[in-house]
Amino acid sequence: MTVSIFSEITGVGHYIPQKTLSNDDLSQLMDTSDAWIRERSGIHERHIADLKEGTSDLGLHAAKEALKAAGMTAEDPDLILAATLSPDYYFPGIGVMIQDKLGARDTPAMDIRGQCSGFSWCLATADAFIRSGQYRTILVIGAEIHSRIIEFSTRGRNVSVLFGDAAGAAVLRRKESPHDIKTALHDPTFSGLIDHEMGSDGSGADLLAVTRPGCSSGHDSLITTHEAENKAFLPVMDGKQVFRHAVNRMSCAVTTLLNRHDVRPEQIDLFIPHQANIRINDMVRQKLALPPEKVFNNIHKYGNTTSATIPLCMYEAEKEGRLKKGNLLVTAAFGSGFTWGANLLRW
Ligand code: UT7
């Protein structure tokens, strides 16, 4: 009997810092309002990390929970993949820090820079490593502390009201199955990753970016005192352009992925989109002709947590009974870069 190698998500974890910041709290800090933020983004509140916590600590909590859910110890993963745009240090990345804090001795730990698509890309990369036969167990993590790289003032309001701090993680395990991709896709008793779509368009890099500190041309140091005093390290975003590209790229990524496997949107049990703006997700949903009950959103509670949005949704959707064993799940992400991704799997 021939068998195929697949990877399966065997545990998911999350971490939400305790402190909340409501839209009304923000309106005390800048010229904004609960009505504006709700109407334009769908966000009601977000969570803010404690000063005692770094991004790797958030990732560590989520990783531990995912390992526990998978019935594994820190020594079990053969590889750690981590995604963030808000690392503890400029370098090294958070992967090695989480590896050390977990006590996963000598396990290779790699950071993947895909911004809001980071977790989607980690899933695709982990799946490829497992299918290639190189690794059997991979821990993937998305963690962010945005609250330290945004400005809670009227100047920064177009960005700062949108983002929150959180982490999510998943454990992927190798499995062997008599199925091939085609039969796995149509068997609701199967559980595993099917396929992925990834894309980038670097011509959009400056439309959502933190450009300083950096080694770009024309600068003789990472950051000057003048730049630091003027807070050149804060993100810049052309919201309208990013919005337009997000709707197009996320819906196209999903359509491409579904068409590749002759899957019709009505066959999807649940769609988990990146949580950047509820209006983006509604437009993507309409383009894909999916009913609202097949889309999972939690942006109202957490805001945009970049690389953590998708695992956070997976975690909550499962807990709430919206995502069940064997369900056909599709995800979609879009972010700074521009980068985008989609994953098709049976839960
Ligand atoms: O993960 C990917 C990352 N990011 C995204 O996907 C974000 C994509 N973009 C968006 O979500 C939306 O473009 C925003 C929510 C950022 C903005 O919504 P918008 O409908 O595009 O508003 P706008 O930028 O056109 O701003 C409308 C007005 C402006 O005032 P004027 O010029 O019309 O007088 C802004 O100055 O709203 C003002 N504004 C605010 N007012 C109150 C901008 N930010 C705020 C704010 N509170 N926080």
Helix and strand layout, with pairings?
Layout: E1 4-15, E2 19-22, H1 23-29, H2 34-41, E3 45-48, H3 55-69, E4 79-83, H4 94-102, E5 109-111, H5 118-132, E6 137-144, H6 157-160, E7 166-177, H7 181-185, E8 192-200, E9 208-209, H8 225-229, E10 236-237, H9 239-260, E11 270-273, H10 278-287, H11 299-302, H12 309-319, E12 328-335, E13 339-346
Parallel strand pairs: 4-5, 4-6, 11-12
Antiparallel strand pairs: 1-7, 2-3, 6-7, 8-13, 9-10, 12-13
Helix pairs in contact: 1-2, 3-4, 9-10
Bound molecules: oxa(dethia)-CoA.
Oxa(dethia)-CoA binds next to helix 2, helix 6, helix 9 and strand 12.
Describe the structure.
- This protein is an alpha/beta fold and 347 residues long.
- It folds into two domains: 4-177, Peroxisomal Thiolase, Chain A, domain 1 (3-Layer(aba) Sandwich); 181-203 and 236-346, Peroxisomal Thiolase, Chain A, domain 1, CATH 3.40.47.10.
- Helices cover 33% and strands 23% of the residues.
- The protein is built from twelve helices and 13 strands.
- It has a five-stranded mixed beta sheet, sandwiched between helices.
- β12 and β13 form a beta hairpin.
- The mean pLDDT is 97.
